[in-house]
Amino acid sequence: MLRRETIPARGYPDGVEFGYSLLCEQTPPKQLITDLVGAEEVGFDYSVISDHYFPWIEDLGHSAYAWSVLGALAQATDRIKLMTFVTCPTMRYHPAVVAQKAATMGILSDGRFTLGLGAGENLNEHIIGRGWPSADVRHEMFREALEIIRSLFDGGFVNYRGDHFRVDSAKLYDLPERRVPIGVAASAGRAGRIAADYADALISDQPVADVVRDFKSGGGDGKPVYGQLPLAYGADPDEARQRAYRLWRWGTAGWKVMSELPGPTSFAASAKTVRPEDVAEAVPSGDDVQKYLDTVQTWADAGFTHLSFCQVGADHQEDFRRWAAAELLPALRERFG
Predict the structure, then answer these.
(1) Domains (ranges, CATH) in the chain?
(2) Active site residue ranges
(3) Which of 2, 56, 288, 289 has the fewest CB atoms within 10 Å of its CB?
């Protein structure tokens, strides 16, 4: 495949790395590919992709199968790193199948893939008809899933008998030369302890300094910490704020609520009392670079080594990349590089 020249990535731990988020819930599948090719060309360090069965609200309008897209991304790009943000390995997917998919992605990407995992949301996992377990049970299932995946990454045959999962003589015949790193999502103490026990990296969608501190003290010191910042870049600040409210109003309820809601109509109902100013606090908008620098500083101060930008609006991705290349990324690297 003929590729245009790309700007080289930088490398952690010399500074904060900045990523480009692919939101399957707002973007058509083929555009996800062209968006990431463009993000690689302008110099983003890595990328993350969401793994959902449903969008949070109908206004978003999409939900492609992330693993098919990942295979295409591995072939369409050369150097940008890839990561799920995040996959739930307990219900829609059996953990042994997740391990196989991740190992294959490690090979297809020539070692550029990180497996980001989390305990899941009712929104996506209810589709198999088993009901939605309590948080305590979900975390028990998550621990078992991590044990299975890590064992399969070790090579050889795996047998497992847990309270929630069984594995009968499973083996991965195609393992990458570089073991696939595992990131674990956590926004509070219980998930943070799981991350400290099993993860090669911590993931959070909030700048939770206490969780980062506990992760580092529990064995994660020196390991990367990944975050994601939704933003609504636009030259017209009013339009950008309105777009953020229309497409991100679902995202202010907090994880304890959001993990329990079963469908887009539930998210829409939960957002009925959300005000534009509530979204504006969580989603910086407009084209003021200083505003974004100040927001990123909060994440850096909390101990995050990686931060991915999730531009709101599928039809505003190219404008965002152009602006990021000219203004945002140079300013970020001057301060955090």
Answers:
(1) 17-336 (3.20.20.30)
(2) 52, 121
(3) 2
Instruction: Tell me whether strands 158-161 and 306-311 are parallel, antiparallel or unpaired.
Output: unpaired
Peptide bond preceding 86 in cis form (omega within 30 of 0)? yes
Cβ atoms of 91 and 144 closer than 8 Å: no
DSSP string, 196-254: HHH-SEEEESS--HHHHHHHIIIIITTS-EEEEEEEEE-SSHHHHHHHHHHHHGGGGS-
**What residues contact residue 151 under an 8 Å CB cut-off, 6+ apart?**
158, 160
DSSP annotation of 27 reads S
Tell me the pLDDT tens digit for each residue of 102-129: 999 999 999 999 999 999 999 999 999 9
Both structure tokens of 51: 């793994």
**From residue 50, how far is each of 27, 69, 137, 246, 307 by CA, in Å?**
11, 11, 23, 20, 15
How much is the average pLDDT of 228-255? 97
